Amino acid sequence: MYAEERQQVILDRARARGRVDVAALAEEFAVTTETIRRDLTALERHGVLRRVHGGAIPVERLGFEPAIATREGVMTTEKERIAKAALALLPEEGTILLDAGTTTAKMADLLPLDRELTVVTHSVNIALMLTSRPNLTVMLVGGRLRSRTLATVDAWALQALKDSFVEVAFIATNGLSSERGLTTPDPAEAMVKRAAIGAARRCVLLADHTKIGNDHFARFADLADIETLITDSGIDSAVAEELEAAGPRVVIV
């Protein structure tokens, strides 16, 4: 097995189990512990694992919020599939909201050129991505800018969303579970996400399977607030049924 193949398996193990152990991996792959440590170091440099004593934990399981540059390199293929599937839920015309997030950013990049839409967003990078599109009117929500997510938050953002109405909001999340609903590490970000959901006729959640089962500090929505969840095929079928029973239609791509 090549190093790249072994590292992919290690990453899959970490995401499935929540943690991997150096000694156990060395035994499983019949390699030295030093080889496994090099693998973990390589994965940490890619921003998908964080080294801990004796092993590693996937970044999705950590209590801190990874920077946007780190998250952009994680689950890219799955996020692309989710973003493409979300295009089917766009209205023919009118106003949509794109929440701050790496999957919603991929959707922004894929928005069709032949549809007249107004796009409301509190994500600076999404707004900049769309400024050159002649068929789109971009409404950037103001407020304090969080450098970690490039999203605007606090009172200005909340007031703008309170006075807005959109046909559909495409929402991102750091975590979701049937017990806790939708959660994110930062309370200010949670308040804006809650306001975005409140401004929409219907809400679509874009979340790859690594977000499912994770609970973060600040809850901003219940699953019943979401009409459709689009996720990837890495989700366990029993978990998908459990989430669907809590409210949203689950679309697996």
UniProtKB/TrEMBL annotation:
- Single GO term (MF): DNA binding
Keyword flag Lyase: no
What keyword terms does UniProt attach to this protein? DNA-binding, Repressor, Transcription, Transcription regulation
Pfam families in the record: DeoRC (PF00455), HTH_DeoR (PF08220)
Concerning PROSITE patterns, the annotation shows: HTH_DEOR_2
The record ties this protein, via InterPro entries, to: Carb_Metab_HTH_regulators, DeoR-like_C, DeoR_HTH, NagB/RpiA_transferase-like, WH-like_DNA-bd_sf, WH_DNA-bd_sf
Ranges for domain HTH deoR-type come to 3-58
Q: Which PANTHER family match?
A: GLYCEROL-3-PHOSPHATE REGULON REPRESSOR, HTH-TYPE TRANSCRIPTIONAL REGULATOR SRLR-RELATED
Please give the function described in this protein's UniProt entry. Repressor of the lactose catabolism operon. Galactose-6-phosphate is the inducer.
State the protein's name. Answer: Lactose phosphotransferase system repressor
Q: Which organism is it from?
A: Saccharothrix lopnurensis
